[in-house]
Design brief:
The protein is 44% helix and 22% strand. It is an alpha/beta fold and 302 residues long. The strands form 2 sheets. The chain has a 7-stranded mixed β-sheet with strand order 1-13-12-11-2-9-10, sandwiched between helices. It binds adenosine-5'-diphosphate and magnesium ion. The site of adenosine-5'-diphosphate has 23 residues, from helix 3, helix 5, strand 5, strand 6 and strand 7. Belongs to the cation transport ATPase (P-type) (TC 3.A.3) family. Type IB subfamily.
Length: 302
């Protein structure tokens, strides 16, 4: 064809299921020398399932009531964990709306008023200890014991608080994407560096998943701004970072990166707006494919 090489690269990217927002993006993709990958919804399928429902003694709640309470607070959230909670509750009972004062705290969880009581659902370290992270972790108490047991089993543990006091813990599990391992290997080869995992989830679950993927550099318990700070630190060292993410919590990192790619199918609007390119077909392997394409196109231009 007579198309200029970069335009033809964009068109080829489209054939791989990636929408590049500009020709500059096609150049930048191939320049990446480090890939930083989000966990939930990016390396995992992003359709997690609730596997455990554990009301705490003294809460006066049974499993169905706990799940319903969490689902009513999570209802307005677009987070994959919120969708899992609502779907699990709906399998058992109708989930009425009527929650008010909804607030989403990216990287931490949600809060809303349900039947006059303040309900919070989210990360144990953020909601119980004020800050997400891999620190000493919860210790002591029925709630902490449930959280530790679930995380030890590789689950994401989510706590439910009512008027500030924990009333239950939910265990949530997500599957790795079938092409996650091959994608990590391909990006390592293309960039010359082993990709890094960036996640707001707990360190135990993150390390378990990273080990399956051959990733050794794991940054867990990160808030959205922490992800961006990590990217900026690498960029300050002279690395050109390719960030792949899907969530509202990934938007600052996508913006800070040399090049940001969002997973389109389940991606949040903010991630899709902020990213330089979007994976429109739900295949992670499209990411290394377009990086390779970009390199070929650059060789033709130079
Ligand atoms: P990741 O970086 O892996 O995509 P997030 O930053 O979106 O994960 O979330 C980090 C953690 O914050 C989750 O593991 C969970 O504990 C908590 N969290 C965030 N949003 C929600 C929500 N809507 N419901 C429950 N927990 C949430
Ligand atoms: Mg995510």
């Amino acid at each position: 064809s007579t198309m200029p090489p970069l335009l033809s690269a964009i068109s080829n990217a489209g054939r791989h299921g990636v929408l590049a927002k500009s020709a500059v993006v096609m150049e930048r993709l191939g320049q990446a020398d480090l890939a930083a990958l989000d966990k939930t919804g990016t390396l995992t399928e992003g359709t997690p399932q609730v596997t455990d429902v554990r009301p705490l003694p003294g809460s006066g709640l049974g499993p169905d009531a706990l799940l319903l309470l969490a689902a009513r607070a999570e209802h307005p959230s677009e987070h994959p964990l919120a969708r899992a909670v609502v779907a699990a509750a709906r399998e058992r009972q109708p989930v009425p709306g009527g929650a008010t004062g909804f607030a989403s705290l990216p990287g931490r969880g949600v809060a809303a008023t349900v039947d006059g009581r303040r309900i919070e659902v989210g990360s144990p370290s953020a909601l119980l200890y004020g800050r997400p992270g891999s620190g000493p972790g919860p210790s002591g108490g029925a709630c902490a014991a449930e959280v530790a047991a679930l995380e030890e089993a590789g689950r994401t543990a989510v706590v439910v608080l009512r008027d500030g006091a924990p009333v239950g813990v939910l265990g949530i599990a997500d599957r790795l994407r079938p092409d996650a391992r091959a994608t990590v290997a391909a990006l390592a080869e293309l960039t010359g560096r082993s990709p890094v995992l960036l996640t707001g989830d707990n360190e135990r679950a993150a390390r378990r998943l990273a080990a399956e993927l051959g990733i050794t550099d794991v940054r867990a318990g990160l808030l959205p701004e922490d992800k961006a700070a990590a990217v900026r630190a690498w960029e300050a060292e002279g690395l050109k970072v390719l960030v792949v993410g899907d969530g509202v919590n990934d938007a600052p990192a996508l913006a800070a990166a040399h090049c940001g790619i969002a997973m389109g199918k389940a991606g949040s609007d903010l991630a899709l707006e902020t990213a330089d390119a979007i994976v429109v077909r739900d295949e992670l392997a499209a990411v290394p494919a377009v990086v390779a394409l970009s390199r070929t196109a650059r060789r033709l231009v130079v």
